[in-house]
Amino acid sequence: MKILTTIEELQEVRKEISSSVGFIPTMGALHDGHISLIKKARAENDIVIVSIFVNPTQFLPGEDLDKYPRRDEADKKICQMCKVDYLFMPKITTMYEKEEVLIKAPNRSYVLEGETRPGHFDGVLQVVLKLFNLVKPTNAYFGKKDAQQLSLIIQMVKNLFLDINIIACDIVRESDGLAMSSRNVYLTPEQRSEALKISKSLRKAGELVGKKQLNVETIKATMKEVMSGLDIEYIAVVNRNFEELTQVELSNTIILVVARFGNTRLLDNLWL
Amino acid sequence: MKILTTIEELQEVRKEISSSVGFIPTMGALHDGHISLIKKARAENDIVIVSIFVNPTQFLPGEDLDKYPRRDEADKKICQMCKVDYLFMPKITTMYEKEEVLIKAPNRSYVLEGETRPGHFDGVLQVVLKLFNLVKPTNAYFGKKDAQQLSLIIQMVKNLFLDINIIACDIVRESDGLAMSSRNVYLTPEQRSEALKISKSLRKAGELVGKKQLNVETIKATMKEVMSGLDIEYIAVVNRNFEELTQVELSNTIILVVARFGNTRLLDNLWL
C-alpha cells in the first residue's frame, strides 16, 4: 500500500491506472462499517483507493471538528490489512484555498440532518466532488447509515453528469445491534447500553411494516415507546427523495432516527 | 459533423475517443470571435466539440434570455465549415432538473459584472461544470472578452481539481475595432458608430501604459474623455484576481469597460 499526501502524487498515480478503481472516501477512525465498504470495493475493482480527510467545511462552528477522533496509525494498518492500493491523506491546505467555488446542496439538504446542521451537506458535497475529480473512481462506496448524505451524493452525480457508480452499502452493526459509528467512542457504558433502544425501535418498525402496518403515525408512536427515556431528536419516514410520508411506500421508504446522548448524536435508519 | 442532442449520445461518443479533445462551449449566434476559438481548437486537438446552449441559469429575471439571438441553422453551417467533429445542442430539460445541486462562485463574482448581474456567474459556472463533466475536454477555449468569467472558470478548475487546460484566447474585433459580440446585432447604426469609442479608449489606455503612465486615476480620466457622450457603466483596472488596482502592474493587469446603449451592454477589455 502506498500513502499519498499531495494532489500531484495522486494525479500521477491515477494517470497510470487504466482498469477499474473503487473509492471509499472517509474521515478516518475506521471501524467495521468502513471495513465492509473497503472489502466490497476490493472484491469489485482492480484498484482500491481510500481517502482519510477530516473535512472542515462539513463541520459547523461549535461542532466536534477538533475533537473528532483521529487514529491515523491504526487506520493505516487497517487499510493495509484490507489490501488497499492507495491511501490518500491530504492536509487541509492541500484540499482548500482561501477563496473557493462552493457547492450548494438543494433545499432538501436543510431538513432532518440539515435542519440541525445547516450547510453541513454543502461541505460534504464540496469535498466529495473534489475527491471524485481527483480519484476519478469507477465505483464509489458509501454506507446507508448516512442516508441523507448518500441521497444528496446520488443527486450531485446525476446533476453534474459524473461518470461514477455510487454503491450504497448496508449498515454494519455491533453484535448487539448498535450501528457502527466513529462517534460511538464518545459514549459512556450507560449511554452505550441505552443506545441499543435505537436499533431496537427500527427492528420493531420493520416488524410492523411486515405485518402490513403502513401508517406512519402508528409506526412512529411504537418507535417512541421502544425508545422511552431517550433524547430523540427526530424520527422521520421519508421516500428516497427525502420527502416525508404519511403512509409507508414499500421498497421506497427510509425510516430515520437520531437520538442524543449528551453532545453525541447517534444516527440509525432502516431502508425498506 | 455529427449533431448530438442527448446526454446518452454525447457520453457514447466520448467513450470512444482516446485522443485529445478541444471544446468550445457557446450560447450560439456564432461570430468571428467564436470562429477564432474553434479554429484554434481545430489546430491543437484531434477531436473538436462545440456546444450551443443558451443557458437559462446565467440570465437574471428581466434579462434578455427570450430575446437572446438564436441562429441554429447558420451556427450549424459555421461549425461544419470549421470542421467541428461534434456539435452538442441540448434542450434545457436535458441539462437541468427541477431540483439541483448548485455551484456558487466566490465573493469576487459579485463585483463588476456580478454587481449588476448578481448570481450570473453561479449560472455560468454551473453549466460549464456540467458541460466539462460530459465532454471531458483536454483543452477548453474561452475568449478574453468575458474576462471575469474566464477568471472564475480558471478558479473553478483549480478548486475542483478538474483535469482540463483552459486556453484564454485574444479578443477578435471588427476591422474598425469593435469587439465581436452576439449582442452587437442589437445596435442601431448610430449606436454602432458611437460604440467605437470603447475600443478607442482601451487603445488610448494601452498607449498611456506604453509611455509609463501607470496611475489608474489618470488612465481612467483619459478613457472617460475618449468615451464622452457614452453611458459608461464602469471602467475598472484590476489584477488577474479581479482586485482593483491604483497603479497598473505590468503583465498582471486587465482594463475593463462596460457601456450601455439602450438595453444593450457592451463589454470590452485590454489585457496588459
From TrEMBL, chains A, B:
Protein name in the entry: Pantothenate synthetase
A Pfam family annotated for this UniProt entry: Pantoate_ligase
Statement: the UniProt record of this protein carries the keyword Iron-sulfur: no
Subcellular localization, as worded in the UniProt entry: Cytoplasm
Cellular component, GO, one term: cytosol
Record-annotated active site: 34
EC numbers for this chain: 6.3.2.1
Residues that, per the record, bind beta-alanine: 58
GO biological process entries: pantothenate biosynthetic process
Keywords: ATP-binding, Cytoplasm, Ligase, Nucleotide-binding, Pantothenate biosynthesis
Residues binding ATP, per UniProt: 27-34, 143-146, 172, 180-183
Function: Catalyzes the condensation of pantoate with beta-alanine in an ATP-dependent reaction via a pantoyl-adenylate intermediate.
Gene: panC
Keyword Plastid: no
